[in-house]
Amino acid sequence: MYETLVRDTDQPVPQPPVGSGGVHVTGLGKRFGDLWALRNFSITVTPGTVLGLLGHNGAGKTTAIRILTTLSQPTEGRATVAGFDVVRDAATVRQHIGVASQQATVDGLMSARLNLQTIGRLYGMPRREARERGDALLEQLDLTSFADGLVRTYSGGMRRRLDLAASLMNRPAVLFLDEPTTGLDPLSRSSLWDMLRDLVSEGTTVILTTQYLEEADQLADDIVVLDHGETVAHGTPQDLKSRIGEQRLDVHISDITQLVAAQQTLLPYADSEPIIDEAECVITVPIKPGTRIVDVVRTLDDAGIDAIDVARREATLDDVFVALTHKTQTERPNNASPQEQS
Ligand SMILES: Nc1ncnc2c1ncn2[C@@H]1O[C@H](COP(=O)(O)OP(=O)(O)OP(=O)(O)O)[C@@H](O)[C@H]1O
Ligand SMILES: [Mg+2]
């Protein structure tokens, strides 16, 4: 419980060296036995901006967050957070960060109010300040009416919000959020996004992981896509979208047995390989500029393929993600190699 908090001294919290805020990461790596969970991870996050870490399950997102929040030691490389080294100055780093991890960090057997007060006290706040800060955050996160209920009776969404409140108690310079909106309903999700935007506009630096690409698109200034621990892409949401071609055609086929034939038929219009979604019976085609839908429909018809719907749209981050992680998912079952032992 409260594993990221330390207060072993009443000394004032050291302030970051001038001009060294944000996060700087160079060649960070973490190995578990034969498996490199993270490798060659390098990034600079400017203060007051949001970095989104994207990747499939097991890509290395939580591993990166755990190292940057001092919960885990890197195997190689180094990182500073708010100007302090995550290994050498771990205790100081903890004073300047907030963390909402994938597992709930609040205590289920206490009320929300008491949880936040306890965290405030652990950070060295006087009792009254801890209470006032906690109550203000409960209000901000719409938890006031449940503030005195035991946290174990909370719904998943309420708990996520309380985790976020807990991570904000010390007014962190850098906030780490590991899948902050998993399990939230759309309304809670968008109100949490608004709250994060406010924090960022006030200068907070945010690193978040998410499975929701729309979330990254909405919030992140910069995105890193991880796959098997490696960085496979890095750029702004717009950079990444334009890198894979802007326009997509979603072709919905009525008969699943025609999917492969349809994919072949669509090749002349494709800029890169069309992607089959068997579950939805949809083929997504990154189309060549100037492609006319009427031609596509006619070609499908001539080939005897029954298309229910053909729709043109702009590329989304989902497309980026599929395009970038698709091959490595199937071609690289494991990134470990025996020589990498040390
Ligand atoms: N303590 C550990 N011991 C051994 N292997 C680990 C440990 N922690 C993580 N791993 C492995 O490292 C890889 C990366 O895990 P990580 O938790 O960072 O992924 P993730 O991107 O956060 O995934 P998810 O989306 O499921 O949360 C996985 O293959 C995982 O099994
Ligand atoms: Mg994770």
General description of the model:
Helix 3 (112-122) packs across helix 4 (127-140). The longest helix is centred in the middle third of the chain and has 16 residues, at 186-201. This protein starts with 22 loop residues before the first strand and ends in an 11-residue tail after the last helix. It folds into two domains: 23-238, Rossmann fold; 245-314, 2-Layer Sandwich (Alpha-Beta Plaits), CATH 3.30.70. The protein has eleven helices and 14 strands. The strands form three sheets. The protein has a six-stranded mixed beta sheet, with helices on both faces. It has helices at residues 61-68, 90-96, 112-122, 127-140, 156-168, 186-201, 213-219, 237-243, 259-266, 293-302, 317-331; strands spanning 23-32, 35-45, 50-54, 76-81, 84-85, 97-100, 174-178, 205-210, 222-227, 230-235, 247-253, 275-277, 282-286, 307-314. It is 34% helix and 25% strand. It has 342 residues and is an alpha/beta fold. The structure holds adenosine-5'-triphosphate (ATP) and magnesium ion (MG). Residues 61-62, 102, 178 line the site of magnesium ion.
Summarize the structure.
This protein has 342 residues and is of the alpha/beta class. The protein is built from 11 helices and 14 strands. The chain folds into 2 domains: 23-238, Rossmann fold, CATH 3.40.50; 245-314, Alpha-Beta Plaits (2-Layer Sandwich).
- Integer tally of domains: 2
Mean pLDDT: 87
CATH classification class of the largest domain = Alpha Beta
What pattern of helices and strands is seen along the backbone?
EEEHEEHEHHHEHEHEEHEHEEHEH
Supply the number of helical segments.
Answer: 11
Structural class: alpha/beta
Distance between the termini: 32 Å
CATH fold name of the largest domain: Rossmann fold
Strand order of the largest sheet: 6-7-8-3-9-10
Low-confidence stretches: 328-342
How many beta strands in the DSSP annotation? 14
